[in-house]
Amino acid sequence: MAENNATLTLPTGEVVELPVLKGSYGPDVIDVSGLLKAGYFTYDPGFMSTAATESKITYIDGGKGVLLQRGYSIEDLAENSDFLETCYLLWYGQLPNQEQKQQFVSNITRHTMLHESLAHFFDGFHHNAHPMAMMCGAVGALSAFYHDVMDIRSERDREIAAHRLVAKMPTLAAMCFKHSIGQPFMYPRNDLSYAANFLYMMFGTPCETYVVSPAVEKAMDRIFLLHADHEQNASTSTVRLAGSTEANPYAAIAAGIAALWGPSHGGANEAVLDMLNEIGDLSRVAEYVDKAKDKEDPFKLMGFGHRVYKNFDPRATVMQASCQAVLAEQGVEEEPLLKVASALEKIAREEAYFIDRKLYPNIDFYSGITLKAMGIPTPMYTALFALGRMPGWIAHWSEMLSSPFKIGRPRQLYLGPVKRDYVPMDQR
């Protein structure tokens, strides 16, 4: 509720009072919706300082390195919780008790299979299509197979759709990978954890038993958890915007996957590996560090610093520990690209140039290296990000639909031609 007002004097001399709203944390918010009546829009390219919604899900303070999900710090959740419990927290607002947790996990576990026709759906994709291209299509296609509960006004229908999405996403992501390498799809197993089941479907074959490493399983679960939600951002806002049209949940989530694909968002950890491949060898690290320092050189070090977290990424410290555990277990520390990564990390943490500019290793850096050590191919990184971000997207989508909402209507500053008459072809 507004406790006071800000006043704005327009060029006409008219004074407009704008309510000032206070949240639990963060800057106060000036409600500018009343400006439309006065004949004005606000102008904020990229929506960098515009709150388009209210939310009770996640809070970020980039300056202090704070990430809270339903009030719990991401560090606390990463150390003590797991991905499915965090899903429950994001959706229902509270941590589950033991009975609730067991029921929730059981429900997700027993809905991991897909309609068999979806397996044939993948036959239409080119064998070397990018996994995110397939994910966009396959998730959107779920609405053609699971259209029995898509009344978005029904809380129960939304819940069932949410459970289906989180349960079936690992199966879809693994199918994307298997299709790209020409191996048969592996069906999910109910005796495995969420992360272990995904790894089994990724790397298992009918030829022999695949045993999931506990360290890799824990790291995979942690990667999912650390990406589960990140407040308002390009993909989350896309899900909300698509959802505001009352589109079905699968279409809204597919839109979020499309927004996540870019290298400035979900593709950042993929960009880290592309950078390491470009450097190629330990002997060239110094050369590329110099290139990164050169303002005239287009080369950029990916995975260092963060546009939100100005001083440190609270997720990175937790991910660093998992990264080290996986590297130690897999015995791949001597792998050339990982040696390059280790050298870059050391430079970024010790050299004044990087320290002064807050170019610290972020979560994309560590998760990219960890996924590399697991043997997951680079094009799959963003698909795994989409898998992890799924509960956050659903939470925001459901939150919007659970309260009064309007269809999204972004405005523009029009700079095109003024009205002109059509000129017939023979007069041009």
Compact description:
The protein is mainly α and 428 residues long. The protein contains 17 helices and 6 strands. The chain has 3 domains: 2-51, Rubrerythrin, domain 2, CATH 2.20.28.60; 73-262, Citrate Synthase, domain 1, CATH 1.10.580.10; 268-374, Cytochrome p450-Terp, domain 2 (Orthogonal Bundle).
Task: Label this structure with key terms.
single chain, 428 residues, mainly alpha, Rubrerythrin, domain 2, Citrate Synthase, domain 1, Cytochrome p450-Terp, domain 2, three-stranded antiparallel beta sheet, 17 helices, 50% helix
Note down, in words, how this protein is organized.
The protein is mainly α and 428 residues long. It has three domains: 50 residues, Rubrerythrin, domain 2 (Single Sheet); 190 residues, Orthogonal Bundle (Citrate Synthase, domain 1); 107 residues, Cytochrome p450-Terp, domain 2 (Orthogonal Bundle), CATH 1.10.230.10. It contains 17 helices and six strands. Strands 1-2-3 form a three-stranded antiparallel β-sheet, with no helix packed on it. Helix 5 crosses helix 6. The longest helix is centred in the middle third of the chain and has 27 residues. The protein starts with a strand and ends in a 27-residue tail after the last helix. The model has no long low-confidence stretch (mean pLDDT 91).
Question: How many strand units?
Answer: 6
Q: Encode the helix/strand succession as letters.
A: EEEEEEHHHHHHHHHHHHHHHHH
Overall geometry: globular
The amount of helix comes to 40-55%
Protein structure class:
mainly alpha
Strand count, sense and barrel status of the largest sheet are: 3 strands, antiparallel
What is the count of distinct domains? 3
CATH superfamily of the largest domain: Citrate Synthase, domain 1
CATH top-level class of the largest domain = Mainly Alpha
Poorly predicted tracts of residues? none
Please report which band the strand proportion falls in: under 5%, 5-15%, 15-25%, 25-35%, 35-45% or over 45%: 5-15%
**Over the alpha carbons, how many angstroms does the gyration radius reach?**
24 Å
Distance between the termini: 59 Å
Spatial strand order of the main sheet = 1-2-3
Number of helices: 17
CATH topology of the largest domain: Citrate Synthase, domain 1
Which assembly state applies to the chains in this document? Answer: single chain
CATH architectural group of the largest domain: Orthogonal Bundle
Overall pLDDT metric: 91
